[in-house]
């Protein structure tokens, strides 16, 4: 959506931002080549262009048996990338014409400007072939233009003094060494390790709609991992993840306690009863309930998956209809917990992140949308669909071709806020209700799943979702629990949503990562929810010989 008056970006006094703005202005002024298939009285201008430069201080390390075995060798200067998005037209599925990235580590603002200029030209006329694609698509159309992006209020936010996390790497290394020593390998535990990942990035963003943004992303992820061997010969990988929005939240005693709890879970799972298939009500602690909500909604409501010839189990056709109990409401709200893991103020397209109702009183009322998806869906469903959910990830591990690995921006979760508007329950009341449901169904025991690592994955078009239950327990009618081997839920997303029976009043902020199939491209995410009961869930034991017929479209951990 080009402004006729031109790009109006003020001087920011940040040399790199100003250099990027100069490139944007120059390319905005240049006319695209005359269209040979459909000559116009005026040559078409650039539909949309954006430049994103990221300075990454990201760090990572792996500890095994009390020793750091692998770690990132920190450079004096941050690793930096510049990322170009060019839309001389727009693909029907909602992604842009060209996405390219290049390494610009240790480059001055002047050199960055040269790299950005070359990158845009390569995107349009070289490797990206954006112009060739533009005219090929235009030739097939009856009108002289392609789809547009939804108009949004452009943000100019660059004067904020962003404060880095200034984490103490030595202290964090000491914590993961202590935790890895506590977990350690044994007769029933193997391949134990503790991973540390630190997200510490500055982002500079400029686009042809006059948006200019300087913002900052920070977070720490500590992950326990091990393989447990059961006495019956089967073995399973087990995980536990901890996310922090501030390094001051991490304490030695807390993490050591979690390491001991994780080891106890491993030992319990090595000699516990073998799980059997189960169908009935399931009592889920917040982390597990968050996983079920994530798989049932995140990728099924993404506009890139519901446009044109694509569809999902909860798509355009279900808009405005009941897809869940009337007591359930779910909002996308990336600014819910400022500076926590998953928080962002502006998305990949520079749009301010709105609080968006996705499900309101059980009714499907929204989507996770980028600007193109919001433009198209607003017309299709005849309601205002806000943009602001376009996220991406750039991995700074160098590759021979591009220097940086990335996946294209797409609608993604930032933070979900799950609200239960029915009868309020404490955690104790929820347990009583669960036992009551077991009695009503004539069951002698039911499945309770404690908080633990719970990787999940989904197939958006079919609506099939799977969530791993690493720490399941069978609970009898007296509330006594006994551990059983790992299991996984499997079923239809709509079935899962419709069978949410109750949720606790107290909510936990459940942080996690949202990935993209085999590419392992991850973005930060979180769900604010409490414990819950889901009725009529099919749960099966995880077998060592289980084979997946195909790879999932999306996954999270």
Q: What attributes does this structure have?
A:
557 residues; 10 helices; 22% helix; alpha+beta; 16-stranded mixed beta sheet; single chain; 27 strands
Description:
It is a single chain. The protein has 557 residues and is of the alpha+beta class. The chain folds into three domains: 15-54 and 77-157; 169-270; 278-556, no CATH class. It has helices spanning 15-29, 109-125, 130-139, 169-183, 252-270, 286-297, 303-306, 371-381, 427-440, 493-498, and strands at 48-56, 59-64, 67-71, 79-90, 96-103, 156-157, 189-207, 212-229, 235-244, 278-284, 328-332, 356-360, 363-364, 390-395, 405-411, 415-420, 445-449, 456-459, 464-469, 472-476, 481-483, 487-492, 500-503, 508-515, 523-529, 532-541, 554-556. It has a 16-stranded mixed beta sheet that branches. α1 (15-29) runs parallel beside α2 (109-125) and α4 packs parallel to α5. Mean pLDDT is 83; it is low at 396-403 and 545-552.
Strands, helices and their partners?
Blueprint: H1 15-29, E1 48-56, E2 59-64, E3 67-71, E4 79-90, E5 96-103, H2 109-125, H3 130-139, E6 156-157, H4 169-183, E7 189-207, E8 212-229, E9 235-244, H5 252-270, E10 278-284, H6 286-297, H7 303-306, E11 328-332, E12 356-360, E13 363-364, H8 371-381, E14 390-395, E15 405-411, E16 415-420, H9 427-440, E17 445-449, E18 456-459, E19 464-469, E20 472-476, E21 481-483, E22 487-492, H10 493-498, E23 500-503, E24 508-515, E25 523-529, E26 532-541, E27 554-556
Parallel strand pairs: 6-8, 10-17, 16-25
Antiparallel strand pairs: 1-4, 1-7, 2-3, 2-7, 4-5, 7-8, 8-9, 10-26, 11-12, 11-16, 12-13, 14-15, 17-20, 18-19, 18-27, 19-22, 20-21, 22-26, 23-26, 24-25, 24-27
Helix pairs in contact: 1-2, 4-5
């Amino acid at each position: 959506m080009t402004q006729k008056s031109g790009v109006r970006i003020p001087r920011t006094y940040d040399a790199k931002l100003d250099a990027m703005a100069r490139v944007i202005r120059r390319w905005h002024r240049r006319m695209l080549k005359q269209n040979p298939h459909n000559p116009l009285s005026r040559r078409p201008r650039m539909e949309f262009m954006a430049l994103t430069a990221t300075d990454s201080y990201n760090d990572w390390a792996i500890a095994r048996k009390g020793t750091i075995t692998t770690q990132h060798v920190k450079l004096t200067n941050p690793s930096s990338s510049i990322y170009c998005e060019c839309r001389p037209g727009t693909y029907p599925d909602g992604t842009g014409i060209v996405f390219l990235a290049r390494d610009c580590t240790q480059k001055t603002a002047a050199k960055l400007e040269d790299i950005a200029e070359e990158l845009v030209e390569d995107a349009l006329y070289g490797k990206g072939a954006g112009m060739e694609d533009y005219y090929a698509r235009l030739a097939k159309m009856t009108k002289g233009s392609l789809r547009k992006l939804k108009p949004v209020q452009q943000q100019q936010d660059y004067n904020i003094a962003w404060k880095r996390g200034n984490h103490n790497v030595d202290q964090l290394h000491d914590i993961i060494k202590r935790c890895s020593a506590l977990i350690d390998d044994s007769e029933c535990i193997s391949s134990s390790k503790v991973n540390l990942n630190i997200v510490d990035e500055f982002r500079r963003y400029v686009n042809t709609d006059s948006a200019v943004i300087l913002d900052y992303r920070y977070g720490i992820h500590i992950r326990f991992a091990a393989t447990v061997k059961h006495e019956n010969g089967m073995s399973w990988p087990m995980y536990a993840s901890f996310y922090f929005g501030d390094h001051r939240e991490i304490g030695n005693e807390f993490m050591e306690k979690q390491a001991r709890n994780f080891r106890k879970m491993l030992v319990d799972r090595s000699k516990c009863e073998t799980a059997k298939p189960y169908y009935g009500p399931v009592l889920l602690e917040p982390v597990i309930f968050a996983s079920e909500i994530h798989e049932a909604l995140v990728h099924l409501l993404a506009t890139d998956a519901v446009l044109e010839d694509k569809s999902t189990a909860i798509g355009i056709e279900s808009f405005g209809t009941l897809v869940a109990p009337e007591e359930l409401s779910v909002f996308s709200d990336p600014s819910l917990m400022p500076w926590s893991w998953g928080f962002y103020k502006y998305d990949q397209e520079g749009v301010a992140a709105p609080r968006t109702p996705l499900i309101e009183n059980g009714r499907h009322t929204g989507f996770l949308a980028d600007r193109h998806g919001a433009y198209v869906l607003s017309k299709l469903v005849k309601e205002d669909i806000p943009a602001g959910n376009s996220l991406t990830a750039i991995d700074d591990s160098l590759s021979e071709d591009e220097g940086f690995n990335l996946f294209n921006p797409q609608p993604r979760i930032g933070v979900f806020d799950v609200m239960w508007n029915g009868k309020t329950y404490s955690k104790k009341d929820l347990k009583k209700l669960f036992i009551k449901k077991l009695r009503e169904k004539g069951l002698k025991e039911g499945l309770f799943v404690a908080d633990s690592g719970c990787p999940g994955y989904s197939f958006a078009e079919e609506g099939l979702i799977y969530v791993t239950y690493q720490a399941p327990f069978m609970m009898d009618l007296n509330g006594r629990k006994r551990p059983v081997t790992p299991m996984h839920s499997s079923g239809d997303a709509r079935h899962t949503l419709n069978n949410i029976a109750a949720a606790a009043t107290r909510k936990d902020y459940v942080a996690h990562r949202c990935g993209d199939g085999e590419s392992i491209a991850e973005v930060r995410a979180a769900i604010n929810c409490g414990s819950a009961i889901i009725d009529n869930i099919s749960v099966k034991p995880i077998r060592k010989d289980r084979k997946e017929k195909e790879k999932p479209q999306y996954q999270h951990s």
